[in-house]
Design a protein that fits this description.
Elements lengths: L1 H65 L5 E11 L2 E12 L2 E13 L3 E4 L5 E4 L7 E4 L13 H9 L25 E14 H7 L5 E6 L9 H4 L5 E3 L23 H11 L5 E2 L2 E2 H6 L10 E10 H4 L8 E11 L9
Antiparallel strand pairs: 1-2, 2-3, 3-4, 5-6, 7-12, 7-13, 8-9, 8-12, 10-11
């Protein structure tokens, strides 16, 4: 009887051990499998976020080259808010004849699937006076004045159109540079729209020595895009920041690469940006491509942004090549820092 009882106890003990062992093994397996699945998912999310980060940074670099009129990016950095969400930011500034003037940051928030939100890049545009068609543009974030270019082709097309009801009213070309004579001891920024497109070499010879060429505007090929609609969609190149107004030839950039620079970089970027942005059914990148030349030597531009002392900028409206001038940022001259020009 005693032996039977002991035997039953042994059997129960062994069963309990096996049961506990089974639970332990199952638990360990669950932890291992769960951990492996979590690791795999986490790794995949990390890969997708890295791809999106690279994609957004590449787009920032393209925008810095082709669509940042006298706007210079000084830094780029990521700020992760969630495992599946991050924000890319770019600190920016303007070069006003050697003075660095703060400009609102650019940012884009993205997840594993793409962009969630981005800072607005188009300016606010409104009439200076309800009685006129003269327009003024300001930055949405800082309320700084933004320099505007005018589409000469649209102005001519509007004037020659018999049924003007079919077109948006043409904006009156502004001549704001001359008003800067009233502003002493100040540096300013002026967008000059030429009466026609000029070559790179001609422009450098045309511009007075006492102003700094900061940006070359490619212009607009289409005669269907009015001045107001084109604001914020300018295509062009920033010049060197040393006051010489020079551009570089650069090199062709293959798809997937991220080193865009110079005139050839602009050409490559426009080819790769086709279909990315349309305004009034006009593909901005394709419109830009139609105005590109083989190289910088034969390149032509429709306008420039120049900076300098206000008394020098005020004379730009008297130049024979000037179709319109539009003022951007102004900043006081400080006694401890001499302007470049």
């Amino acid at each position: 009887m005693s032996d039977n009882v002991n035997f039953e106890k042994i059997i129960k003990t062994e069963k309990r051990k096996k049961w506990l062992k089974t639970i332990a093994v199952s638990g360990a397996a669950t932890v291992i499998i769960g951990g492996s699945v979590f690791y795999a998912i986490h790794k995949q999310v990390g890969i997708q976020m890295a791809k999106q980060a690279s994609k957004q940074q590449r787009q920032f670099n393209i925008d810095d080259l082709i669509s940042s009129p006298n706007i210079i990016s000084t830094s780029q950095y990521f700020s992760m808010t969630k495992t599946t969400q991050s924000t890319l930011k770019s600190d920016r500034e303007k070069n006003i004849d050697g003075y660095r003037v703060a400009y609102p940051e650019k940012n884009v928030t993205f997840n594993t699937h793409g962009v969630e939100s981005a800072s607005a890049q188009t300016p606010n545009i409104y009439n200076k006076n309800p009685a006129t068609k003269e327009i003024i543009a300001t930055n949405r974030q800082s309320q700084q004045k933004e320099p505007l270019f005018f589409n000469v082709k649209y102005e001519h097309a509007y004037q020659s159109e018999k049924d003007k009801k079919e077109l948006l009213a043409s904006s009156i070309p502004t001549h704001e540079a001359e008003t800067l004579s009233q502003l002493s001891n100040t540096l300013g920024e002026v967008a000059i729209t030429f009466d026609k497109r000029y070559s790179y070499d001609d422009i450098r010879q045309m511009m007075p020595e006492n102003v700094m060429i900061n940006y070359y505007w490619l212009g607009i090929h289409s005669d269907k895009l009015d001045t107001m609609s084109a604001a914020g969609s300018y295509i062009g190149l920033n010049a060197s920041d040393d006051g010489t107004g020079k551009l570089t030839e650069g090199a062709e950039v293959k798809a997937g690469k991220n080193d865009f620079s110079g005139y050839q970089g602009l050409k490559s970027a426009l080819e790769q940006q086709s279909g990315q942005r349309t305004v009034n059914d006009i593909d901005i990148a394709k419109d830009g491509q139609r105005q590109m030349s083989k190289n910088l030597k034969t390149a032509k531009f429709a306008g420039v942004i120049v900076t300098g002392r206000t008394q020098n900028l005020a004379k730009l409206d008297n130049q024979k090549y000037t179709f319109a001038t539009n003022v951007g940022v102004t900043t006081p001259i400080m006694p401890y820092q001499a302007p470049i020009k």
